[in-house]
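Entry 14. Ran structure prediction on the chain below.
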Amino acid sequence: MRERAIVSQSFDLAEIARGAASRRLPSIGIAMAPLVIVVRVNYLMNMVVFRRIDALYLAQAR
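Output, structure tokens:
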């Protein structure tokens, strides 16, 4: 069975017996941090970076 699990790269069948789910869940702040970061970066890109791009050449017919 170990030979068939080779495509799963870091998965090791010998670790199944010792592995377990975490007993402690992360706090709500840690859990929400990735979502907050993505929303803030998206807002920053839309309000600052994308507004400075000169893309008028895209409207010209060729």
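Helices lie at 28-49. Will compare against last week's run tomorrow.
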